Structure formats: C-alpha cells, structure tokens
From TrEMBL, chain A:
It is a multi-pass membrane protein. The keyword Transport applies. InterPro entries: AA_ABC_transptr_permease_3TM (IPR010065), ArtM/GltK/GlnP/TcyL/YhdX-like (IPR043429), MetI-like (IPR000515), MetI-like_sf (IPR035906), Solute-binding_3/MltF_N (IPR001638). PROSITE patterns: ABC_TM1. NCBIfam families: HEQRo_perm_3TM. The lineage of its organism: Bacteria, Bacillati, Bacillota, Bacilli, Lactobacillales. The keyword Mitochondrion does not apply. The chain crosses the membrane at residues 283-311, 341-365, 453-475. This is ABC transporter substrate-binding protein/permease. Belongs to the binding-protein-dependent transport system permease family. HisMQ subfamily. Residues 288-472 form the ABC transmembrane type-1 domain.
Automatic annotation (TrEMBL), chain B:
Belongs to the ABC transporter superfamily. Its main location: membrane. It is found in: Cell membrane. It is a peripheral membrane protein. Keywords: Amino-acid transport, ATP-binding, Cell membrane, Membrane, Nucleotide-binding, Transport. InterPro entries: AAA+_ATPase (IPR003593), ABC_ATPase_HisP-typ (IPR030679), ABC_transporter-like_ATP-bd (IPR003439), ABC_transporter-like_CS (IPR017871), MetN_ABC_transporter-like (IPR050086), P-loop_NTPase (IPR027417). One of its GO terms (molecular function) is ATP binding. This is Amino acid ABC transporter ATP-binding protein.
Length: 485, 247
C-alpha cells in the first residue's frame, strides 16, 4: 500500500519528538470517546488520491471525498451518533495528524505494520484486497502469470509494501520505483515497465477503466497485518477503538464492503465520463488560489525578515550579526523540503499550526535569508561616498539606511529580487508534501481521478507559467517606473 | 590676533603598512581660507578625512572646540557632522532624492526643522548657489558643476562652523569649473572658515589666506599664497610650483 518518503520522515520526527517529550502518555485516563461526544463531531483524516479507497468526485458542482473508506467513515459516524468531518491532507501527514490530535482518526487505506504500531493504535482490519500486478493487455500472453515476471521490469511506489515485496520475491528482476502511482502507470503504458505492483482493488480499477491494461494476481504469501487496511487512532484511544471495531463487525456481518466498492466504482466512472481538464477546472482554480496566497504572504514576510536580517548583520552588536549570519548560512545550506517538514512537524506540533500556515511560514523563513543576501549585495554595490555624504551632514545610522542607502539598494537589486519572487512562486510547490492543497497537490488529485498522466501536468505548468509571466511583467513595470524617477 | 578653529597635533594615519600621514601638526584659523596643495598621493585628502573623522587617525590629536575628536564617542561625533561640512570631489548627492530633498533631508532629520521651514531654508541656499530653478530636478539630470553647487548648498544649509572642500573641481568638465569656484569665492568673502584641497593653483592664490604645501605625508611648508607661489623657502615646494606653472 502507499507509503512514501513523507511518512518515513514524519515517523522519524514523531519518534524524535516523543523521545524528547519523554514518550507517549499512558492510556489510563482514556477520554477519547467522551471528548468527541462532547464536541459532537468525528474528525477523520484522509488522502483522497487513492481510488477506489478514497478520491474526489464532483457532486452538485462541488468536489467531495468519496470511496470505500469514506463510506466506512460515514457508517462509523452514524453508529457513534456524531457528525462526520473529513479533512484532506497528504498521506504522509495523516498519521501525524492523528498523533498530534488534529483529527480523531485516519482512514486512508493504511496497513497496520509493526513500525506504525509503535506510534499509533489500529482498529481491526476492515479490508484485505491482496496484491496484484497491472500489465499491458497486449503483453498478457507473455506475462499471464506472476512467475513469468522474473527478469522483467517491475515498477512500484517508492517505499511502499509493493516495492518491498517485489524486491524480496523478484530479486532477479529490474525493480524500479517512483513517487506517484500515475507516473508508474504512464511508464507501463510507454513500455518502460512490464508490470506495476499494486493493491488489488487499485489494479482492478485501472484495468476496468483502461482497456490497455490487465490485472494478474501477485501470488505473494502474506500476513494479513502487513497487507490489510485498518483505521488509525492516537495511542490509548481504547474506548474509541472498541466502538469503531463494533462498526467494522457490523459492516462485515452485513457484507456492505462490496456495496461500498460499487458506489466507489460509480463515482470513478462518473469521473472518467469527462476527463477533460475543463471539467476539473475547480481543482486547478483552488490550487491556484492556495499557491497565490502562499506566495504573496511568503514574499511579503520574506522581505520584512530579509530587511531585519540585514539590519542585524550590519549591527555593531556582535551577537546580533552573528545570529543573522548563522541563520542565513543554515537556511541556504539545507534543502527547503527539510525546512518545511521541520516547521510543520516541529514548530507546528507545539503551536498547532495548520499545514497551510506552517508551509507559508517555512517558505517565508527560507526566502528571508535569500532576500537578506540580495539586499546586502545591493548595499555593498553602492558608492561608499553615499555613506560619507550622509555622515557629513550628521545623519544618524538609521536615517542613512532609511533615506539614502536602502532606497538606492532596492532600486539596484530589483531584478534579483524579482527572480527571488519568481522562485518563491515555483518553490512554494514543496508545501504539497505536508498536504497543503496547492497546485501540485491538486495535480495529483486530478491525475488520480482521471487516470490521465500528462494532461494535468501540462495544465499546471501553464498555470505556473501564467503566474510567473504576469509577475515578471509586473516587476518590469515597477522597474521602469523607478528608473523614470 | 586670529582664533584657532582646529588644531592638529602630530596626526598620523596608516592603511595597513602604508604610512600616509607622517605626523602633521598645524592650526586652521577661524574666518580664514586655508588651501592645501601638493602632488597626488601626498596625503591632502586623507588629512581632510582624518580631521572630520571619516577616517580614524592612527595616532595624534585633532582638537575642535576644545575637544579631541580622536577620543570622542560616536555620540559626540554625531554632533560634529553638523559643525564640519564637507564637499566631495564626486559630489555624492543622493541620487534617489530631488535637489530640494538633498538639502532638506539634513535640516529635517538632524536640525529637526519642520518641512515648511526646511524648504524655505533650502531654497535660500539653493538661490545663493544659483540652483533654485532646479529644486525639483533629480541629480542625474544635472551637469557636474550644477551638482557641485547643490552639494555646496547642502553643506551650507547645515550652518557648519568649518567647511571642507576635497578637490571640488577635479571631477568637472573645464567649462563648469568657473561656476563652482565663483561660489566658493563668495563664501570666502563672507569670512566662512574653509579648508580647500585643490589643484587650481590660480584659484588658491586668489582666495586663500594661507597655503599648506604637502608632500609624502608631511606638511612641508605653510605660508601666505604670496610667499608659497612666488618665493617658496623649501626646495620641494619650489620644485612643485615650477612644475605646476610649466603646465
């Protein structure tokens, strides 16, 4: 099942934090159920890019989460007499959300592996679909049986169970991994791969919805705990877990799972009826709004932080200039992705920041360091006669910066500053890893919904280009205006 | 009997291992014009800059109004900016401000005048240097001579007790030199204490009350322009004057 770098890092961070905090709390005072009943709401985290488990469909003009897991969540909410609130986030963030209490449970096709049991509690297994391979229909004669895949090119999602299993059982094959399932499917279609290892219902869905593909059984011998799907809770939520298990029993007794899958299949069909990008404009539009919001805020706070850092650097107080220099060096010397994860899971866990706020803060903190260096370069490029002239009429250091140095520096550095703003727009895409629904996040949702690998990328690329192109024009306009002064 | 405005005691200045000023002593007299001449690299400009503390002297004392500026705190030196004005070779106008704002900036931020009073004062000084008609222009649109006249107005507006000129006409086209020298001459007639580092020998001869000849970081000879230019006592001075007059 889907697992990725995000969750590996998240687990690591949670592990570090729980070690720092002295381990998780004892379950003696389990009031998980009572707290939810008081609030009247069941908050559920999910990552809707995994049909038929969970994905998005347009219902009455609005995009909503649907799929088997959502149907199960609805039943649980009904049994508990609570209102269901589904919260979308990146798969890697769902278990973290459970641990930090942002949600009551996560239902997103999670395998209750031993490693995950260290940090969260799980319900009973509610579904066990088994493992399969997706192959090209025209190669079905060649690969009609999983055993024939020895020596072939097999793809799987990076770090997933399928990846691990393929490496174990097909050590003589060429195993390739990619981050996103749609990319694997595209590689299969292009003949770069002979087979893709998938959860059975997922492979089934692809085979049913695309006449180029066929499914074959993987034939792995597996422990149900490693392969089935279960619902995750925070450690010690025993009262909630036992209620949820009752609901799962009820669902199994009534054999409702096939019904749920059928409903999911109907939505998938609806999605596939019109896979034109126009039909999905709202997804792109929402992604555009979030990307714009994050970029604008990050640029504004980045400039303010940059100015502050430069002032600190110019300060005669050593501690201030040393702090600013260290900050700039650390930010410039580490990947932005790591910074985003640290702000969200580190700072965000203490201050309970949403992914959007944490992502914006991280990008502003990053941009500030670069802006500071650009401003410093602008100041250094000025004739030192400007400082001397200001001193000769008795201007204070602050006034000299404010009225003489900074206005000129800003004019000189405007082109470099413009480049930095454009970088912020493009690099803000990194926040999708913590589940902010920016353009990249929406791109993955649309790819999962439509089974189209390329068209959504082209659309998102065009949107990014329009954004940066408009920004470039705007910056040029201001540059001309300044030069006319 | 003239009063001393600034007294130098054995001022030395070195940049790393390079000794640029090798112990200069002397008095700058109040209400008089002192002209400093000498070959390039003799330390004339550095001397000016060590007096108004743009450069810290390596040793020695600079006494102004009874205080040794070398030992003054940065807070005390802030006040100095108002008392000793400076006109630079390359003008150093603020290119991001209009001519008027170049002059009012110090009045508003340092002298704490209100905007209207500052504008009136600035206009008075711009009129004095003949630049009032360019008050709203930006420095980039001015000729070198015009820029230097604005720079003089900017310095004068702060009502300095002493005004320094660091080669004020060296960066100018020949046709612009006259307009700047005329302004300086008018100031001399008003008995403003001035120190002028210059290569314009004829001008120095005309306006200066006293001339310092510097060579190799030392004050070689000081006297009236009449003596320095016509009957210099030192061989080095004679040599320099002869060379300059040949050009």
């Amino acid at each position: 099942m889907k697992r990725n770098l995000g969750i590996a890092l998240a687990t690591l961070l949670i592990f570090i934090m729980s070690v720092v905090a002295g381990g998780t709390k004892a379950s003696a005072d389990d009031n998980s159920l009572q707290k939810m009943k008081d609030a009247g709401v069941l908050r559920v985290a999910t990552s809707p890019d995994y049909p038929p488990f969970e994905f998005q469909a347009t219902i009455d003009g609005k995009s909503k989460d649907v799929g088997m897991d959502i149907e199960i969540a609805k039943q649980i909410a009904k049994d508990l007499g609570l209102k269901l609130k589904v919260m979308d986030m990146d798969f890697g963030s769902t278990l973290v959300a459970v641990q930090t209490g942002k949600v009551d449970m996560a239902i997103t096709g999670v395998n209750p592996t031993e490693a995950r049991r260290q940090s969260v509690d799980f319900s009973k297994i509610y579904y066990n679909g088994g493992q399969a391979f997706l192959v090209n229909k025209k190669q079905l004669k060649e690969f009609n049986n999983a055993k024939k895949l020895h020596g072939a090119k097999i793809g799987a999602q990076t770090g997933s169970l399928q990846h691990k299993l393929a490496k174990q059982d097909f050590s003589d094959s060429d195993i390739q991994s990619m981050d996103k399932t749609p990319n694997l499917i595209f590689a299969l279609k292009n003949g770069k791969l002979d087979a893709v290892g998938l959860e059975k219902p997922v492979a089934e869905a692809y085979a049913a919805n695309n006449k180029d593909f066929a499914m074959i059984d993987a034939g792995y011998k597996l422990d149900a705990n490693e392969t089935g799907a279960a619902i995750a809770f925070a450690k010690g939520s025993d009262s909630l877990a036992s209620e949820v298990n009752k609901s799962i029993d009820k669902i199994h007794k009534n054999n409702w799972i096939p019904k749920y899958l059928k409903t999911a299949g109907k939505y998938m069909k609806d999605n596939l009826q019109d896979t034109s990008m126009m039909h999905y404009w709202k997804y792109f539009y929402n992604g555009f709004l979030n990307t714009t919001l994050i970029s604008v805020l990050a640029v504004i706070f980045g400039i303010l932080l940059g100015i502050l850092l430069v002032l600190m650097k110019l300060s005669s107080w050593k501690l201030l200039s040393w702090t600013a220099t260290s900050y700039i060096e650390i930010v410039r010397g580490t990947p932005m992705m790591v910074q985003v994860l640290l702000v969200y899971f580190g700072l965000g866990a203490v201050l309970n920041l949403s992914a959007l706020v944490a992502g914006t803060i991280a990008i502003a903190l990053n941009s500030g360091a670069y802006v500071a260096e650009i401003i410093r370069g602008g100041i250094n490029s000025l004739d030192k006669g400007q400082n001397e002239a200001a001193a000769s009429i008795g201007l204070s250091k602050v006034d000299t910066l404010r009225f003489v140095i900074l206005p000129q520096a800003f004019k000189n550095i405007w082109p470099s500053l413009g480049n930095e703003f454009i970088s912020v727009v493009k690099e803000s895409s990194i926040v999708s890893i913590i589940g902010v629904s920016d353009l990249i996040y929406q791109l993955n949702v649309v790819r999962a919904d439509t089974y189209r690998a390329v068209a959504p990328i082209v659309v998102v690329m065009a949107i990014y280009f329009l954004m940066t192109f408009t920004l470039t024009r705007l910056l040029n306009h201001f540059e001309r205006k300044m030069n006319n002064d | 009997m003239t009063k001393t405005a600034i007294e130098l005691q054995n001022v030395e200045k070195s940049f790393k291992d390079n000794l640029v000023l090798k112990g200069v002593s002397g008095q700058i007299e109040e209400g008089k014009v002192l002209s400093i001449i000498g070959p390039s690299g003799s330390g004339k400009s550095t001397l000016l800059r060590t007096i108004n503390q743009l450069e810290k002297p390596t040793s020695g004392g600079v006494f102004f109004e009874g205080k040794n500026l070398v030992e003054a705190t940065s807070k005390e030196l802030k006040h100095l900016g108002e008392s000793i004005g400076m006109v630079f070779q390359s003008f150093n106008l603020f290119p991001n401000h209009t001519v008027l704002k170049n002059v009012t900036l110090g009045l508003v931020r340092v002298k704490k005048m209100d905007e209207a009073e500052a504008k009136k004062t600035a206009n008075d000084y711009l009129t004095k240097v003949g630049m009032d008609n360019k008050a709203d222009a930006y420095p980039a649109s001015l000729s070198g001579g015009q820029k230097q006249r604005v720079a003089i107005a900017r310095a004068l507006a702060m009502k300095p007790k002493v005004l320094f000129f660091d080669e004020p006409t060296s960066a100018l086209d020949p046709e612009n030199v006259g307009e700047v020298l005329k302004v300086i001459q008018e100031l001399a007639e008003e008995k403003l204490t001035m120190v002028i580092v210059t290569h314009e020998m004829a001008f120095a001869k005309k306006v200066a009350d006293k001339v310092w000849f510097m060579q190799d970081g030392q004050l070689v000879e000081e006297d009236t322009p009449g003596v320095i230019f016509n009957h210099p006592k030192h061989e080095q001075t004679q040599h320099f004057i002869e060379q300059v007059l040949l050009d």
